[in-house]
Design a protein that fits this description.
The protein starts with a strand and ends with a helix. By secondary structure, the protein is of the alpha+beta class. The strands form six sheets. Strands 13-16-15-14-17-18 form a six-stranded antiparallel β-barrel. It has a five-stranded parallel sheet with strand order 7-2-1-11-20, covered by helices on one side. Strands 3-6-5 form a three-stranded antiparallel sheet. The protein has two domains: 247 residues, 3-Layer(bba) Sandwich (FAD/NAD(P)-binding domain), CATH 3.50.50; 152 residues, no CATH class. The protein is elongated.
């Protein structure tokens, strides 16, 4: 009987262990925390957006880094396979806006409970509070792990599913990167992704907590547009966050790190063309003619946003509405269609949903997840240089690569 060791009991690790187990394999899952799925508990604000119900090509289209690497994995264990597996193991699901799939209960614990049931029923040995310190490699072949100085667990295959660096309190401390580098693999520099931005403007702290729905965010590197999308965002004490911003960070993160700052614009009225918005303002101003400009924007904007927009408009806040010129009004229209912000940096790994970067996919066989450098060594999940936008895509990457690695390792 072959022995397969899986390092890490997160999303990809549980999938790898479950699908490595068959009548000819002994599978041992090594998890350094006190329970499996610790990071899963907090994903999606505790709701766990476990996959996306779109077709595979749409899923691949939402993968930012190395999407072509994932063809075998995603077609081998698809989002439909994942949804069916959860439903069959006591976790009913629902599909929400954007084809995001959640547990019907809105509790991530139901997803983890389903996986733990699968692991138990298939006979996977789960060893908690067991931290791996290194790999045992002989003659360019993985043959076990070290769990403490002088103590080894030997095996026929090893699957590394240690995650990245995001949410380090859950145990994601980059162990897999070290294992990979020590065994001769290339590791792409890791940065936080799906993470809020810090902005330069002082007024953002006054807007903290303000949520904007149905707006368009555009991010530019000088005059070149690098991200533009429509959705929901919110202001924080130091900048901006929300689904729209997190997706922007996945696209802009490395450019921002290189450039040091990026310009951003919020189209506060994307449903209206400039001419339509101008007519709307004319109508509003006709009803507010004797008010000061600072008090005339209540029909256009939420309360917190009125003062910053007024300040950026160049119109004196004390000016009477009936004295505002056409040129000033047109400038206000353009401001509402492109409210400017300056992005200075992303927040850190403690606030990042995922890690961008990781083990180079050039060193991994996409058809098996086996290392091209070390025989019988496999990698899966966030430890690889793979990442996607928000919407359940990153967890599907974890499930699919984990399943492929497990199936491949058990066939050694």
């Amino acid at each position: 009987m072959k022995t397969v060791l899986v390092i890490g009991g997160g999303a990809s690790g549980m999938a790898a262990a479950a699908f490595a187990k068959n009548e000819n394999t002994r599978v041992i899952l090594l998890e350094k925390n006190e329970k499996t799925g610790k990071k899963l508990y907090i994903t999606g604000k505790g709701r766990c957006n476990l996959t996306n119900a779109s077709d595979i090509e749409t899923i691949l289209g939402n993968v930012v880094t190395n999407p072509r690497f994932l063809y075998s994995a995603l077609y081998g264990f698809s989002n439909e396979d994942m949804m069916r597996l959860m439903e069959e193991n006591g976790c009913p699901l629902k599909t929400e806006r954007g084809n995001r799939v959640f547990p019907l209960s809105d509790h991530s614990s139901d997803v983890i409970r389903a996986w733990n049931r699968i692991l138990q029923e298939r006979g996977v040995e789960v060893r908690l509070r067991t931290e791996v310190s290194g790999l045992v490699i002989r003659d360019k072949t993985a043959c076990g792990v070290r769990i403490s100085p002088g103590k080894e667990i030997l095996s026929d295959a090893v699957i590394v599913c240690t995650g990245g660096l995001s949410y380090p309190v859950t145990g994601s401390t980059g162990d897999g990167y070290r294992f990979a580098e020590e065994s001769g693999h290339r590791v792409v520099d890791s940065i936080p992704s799906l993470v809020p931005f810090d902005c330069e403007e002082a007024f953002v702290s006054d807007l903290s907590g303000l949520s904007l729905k149905n707006v368009r965010l555009t991010v530019r590197n000088r005059s070149h547009t690098i991200f533009s999308d429509f959705g929901e965002m919110l202001f924080t004490h130091t900048g901006i966050s929300g689904p729209l911003v997190l997706s922007a960070s996945a696209v802009c993160g490395r450019i921002l790190r290189k450039e040091g700052r990026l310009s951003a614009e919020i189209d506060l009225k994307p449903a209206l063309r400039e001419e339509e918005l101008d007519r709307r303002i004319v109508r509003d101003f006709s009803e507010e003619q004797n008010k000061d400009f600072r008090n005339s924007l209540s029909k256009l904007l939420p309360g917190k946003l009125q003062a910053p927009v007024a300040a950026c408009s160049g119109i004196s806040p004390d000016k009477k509405v009936h004295d505002i010129t056409r040129e000033e009004r047109i400038a206000l229209v353009k401001l509402l269609k492109a409210f400017p912000l300056t992005i200075m940096r992303t927040r850190g790994f403690s606030e990042a949903v995922i890690t961008k970067g990781g083990i180079s996919v050039k060193d991994v066989d996409p058809s098996t997840m086996e290392s091209r450098i070390i025989k019988n060594l496999y990698f899966a999940g966030e430890v690889l240089d793979l990442d996607a936008l928000t919407g359940g895509y990153n967890l599907q990457i974890a499930w699919s690569t984990g399943v492929l690695a497990g199936r491949s390792a058990s066939a050694v």
